[in-house]
């Protein structure tokens, strides 16, 4: 006689699998997104809106009158600085990093990476839209593993 799993058992396993999948897909939404910005900067709020829309989350904005000290305290290399800095789930996101790169970082969690940066303020990057004008830019991963190109846009 072949043992058949009772329907209730099959439903329990299916339900458990769905819960695990839902938990994995909601990791990005469960994290706290805190962006530090100079109170006079407008592109920062545009970028935060891009992250909120692209990752279905809320970005808390904290004004700082000493962004240099804040970036230094969080280990952002000076040559990678931009106008705003975000902390999310133990990572630092510097500048106009696209939401898809942030999501990839949170999903893959590469060893030795402390954060991502888009140095400067390239035209066409999220929050720096200027009509159809776009400058190619790279997202740089930084941390104990050194620096490397994490993604290139467009």
Automatic annotation (TrEMBL):
Cited PROSITE patterns: PROKAR_LIPOPROTEIN
Keywords: Signal
Signal peptide: 1-30
Signal recorded as keyword: yes
A Pfam family the protein falls into: DUF411
Protein name, as recorded: DUF411 domain-containing protein
Source lineage: Bacteria, Pseudomonadati, Pseudomonadota, Alphaproteobacteria, Sphingomonadales
């Amino acid at each position: 006689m072949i043992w058949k799993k009772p329907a209730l058992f099959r439903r329990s396993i299916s339900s458990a699998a769905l819960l695990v999948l839902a938990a994995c897909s909601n990791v990005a939404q469960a994290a706290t997104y805190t962006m530090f910005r100079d109170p006079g900067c407008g592109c920062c709020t545009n970028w935060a809106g891009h992250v909120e829309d692209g990752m279905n989350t809320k970005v808390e904005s904290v004004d700082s009158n000493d962004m240099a000290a804040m970036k230094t305290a969080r280990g952002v290399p000076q040559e990678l600085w931009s106008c705003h800095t975000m902390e999310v789930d133990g990572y630092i996101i510097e500048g106009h990093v696209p939401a898809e790169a942030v999501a990839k970082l949170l999903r893959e969690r590469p060893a030795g990476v402390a954060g991502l940066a888009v140095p400067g303020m390239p035209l066409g990057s999220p929050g720096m839209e200027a009509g159809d004008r776009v400058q190619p830019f790279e997202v740089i991963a930084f941390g104990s593993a050194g620096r490397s190109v994490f993604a290139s846009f467009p």
